[in-house]
Amino acid sequence: MTRRTDIDVRTVTEAEFPDWNRALNTGFLQPPAVAAEQLEARRRQFVPGRLLGAFDGDRCVATFRSFDQEITAVGGTLLQADAISNVTVTATHRRRGLLTRMMARDLAAAKDRGDVVATLIAAEYPIYGRYGFGPATTMTEWTVDVPRARLDPRWAAPEDGGRIDLVDGEDVRKLGPELHERLRRAQPGAVSRTDLWWQARTGAVNLSALPWTEPCYALYRSADGQVEGLASYRADDHWGDAKQPLNTATVDWLLAVTPDAERALWRYLCSIDWVQTVKSGWRAPDDLLPHLLPDPRAARITTQADWLWVRILDVVRALESRAYEGRGTLVLEVVDRGGPAGGRWRLEAGPDGASCAPTTESAHLVLDVGELATLWLGDESAVRLAALGRVREERAGAARVADALLRTSRRPWCPDMF
Ligand SMILES: CC(C)(COP(=O)(O)OP(=O)(O)OC[C@H]1O[C@@H](n2cnc3c(N)ncnc32)[C@H](O)[C@@H]1OP(=O)(O)O)[C@@H](O)C(=O)NCCC(=O)NCCS
């Protein structure tokens, strides 16, 4: 076995990019060969200095990519984030500390750049807590049993005077980005999207090793002609022995900036002839969907899991830049073994703003940096984390104070996988 120190962790050059992609495909259990078209598309994600690889001799055995992203804090402030993706270690070289080395290097660079947080979507729950990440948003997928929902079978168009049209990929590339901008600026936990995201989701480029198939795109316009919602979905072709249609429509993604748009798009998706089942795709846990149905039990939760993981790099900016509806003071003792967020911080917050600074006052609440990330976007309760032993109250009632300050009326959500 090659000794740990013989494996070089370094930034990847353009010349090494094909080999790095082969390792990436292998790590994600895809066919290792990278088609020329795929490589060309992925080159657009190549940012010098932001791709890391581990090399055993001249063979790439681990991959790691980060890129600039904006994340929306509670209240709508956009913060600079270090988004992490394409993390793999080839099975022959696992559990020798390669991920740990790449992560340490990337997080140190992110802190130096002034990024407030790092973000990622974790393939498996146990991987990233050790690096100071905590789950900060949740996703829910519903499976709707359409006949059970008791919707009016004669439905033909949105009741609010709006309309739904099927559009093509070019329309989506034209209209989607602005719609998404509106959504993500108002949605805590949402992140910025690149042009490449839209191109890849509409078949203009193919980043994946799998062949592209075109979905259907449904566009919602309000009564006064405003574009307020857009959904991409695919349907299968499944009939029962009694010659009855049993088709499933699966939503790839759905964006709605008004409740009317959300209502109209779900209503449309649950009214397509032959479709007996609608799979919602990865939604916010408090999506309106189940309660838009006369019988909400027709929407069964089929997946509910952690989604966006956040690593706080700058406690002061993270806490000062979010909004607070309540008013209060909290002294937080953040444990971050050698990391940049450790220390005792005094947060004074209210509807008119917040200040956060290091302090020597006694702590009210002691918590790991990962738990701070979990509380930061307001998705989780400090009282619940205290019951789990994941935060410790040093002052009676401090967890309730934290909840009154940090929790939000609607839950955070990240619509993106990256
Ligand atoms: C996850 C992955 C990148 C880990 O790489 P690695 O180089 O083996 O990780 P390290 O050796 O640096 O591990 C550091 C620690 O994390 C633990 N760890 C790593 N991956 C883990 C996993 N999937 N589950 C549980 N623990 C894990 C290691 O056991 C080790 O623990 P220790 O410090 O107590 O010994 C690698 O297993 C992999 O490529 N998996 C498949 C693709 C994948 O899931 N990528 C992540 C996409 S988000």
TrEMBL record:
Residues the record lists as binding acetyl-CoA: 87-89, 95-100
Assembly with partners or alone: Homohexamer; trimer of dimers.
Domain N-acetyltransferase: 7-153
Listed GO MF terms: aminoglycoside N-acetyltransferase activity
Keyword Cell cycle among record annotations: no
Kinase as UniProt keyword: no
Pfam families: Acetyltransf_17, Acetyltransf_9, SCP2_2
Name of this protein: N-acetyltransferase domain-containing protein
PANTHER family: N-ACETYLTRANSFERASE EIS (PTHR37817)
Family annotation (Gene3D superfamilies): 3.40.630.30, SCP2 sterol-binding domain (3.30.1050.10)
Residues forming coiled coils: none
Originating species: Streptomyces mutabilis
InterPro entries: Acetyltransf_17, Acetyltransferase_Eis, Acyl_CoA_acyltransferase, Eis_dom, GNAT_dom, NAcTrfase_Eis, SCP2_sterol-bd_dom_sf
Domain of life: Bacteria
Keywords: Acyltransferase, Transferase
Family membership noted in the UniProt record: Belongs to the acetyltransferase Eis family.
Catalytic site positions: 128 (proton donor), 418 (proton acceptor)
One GO process term, biological-process aspect: aminoglycoside antibiotic catabolic process
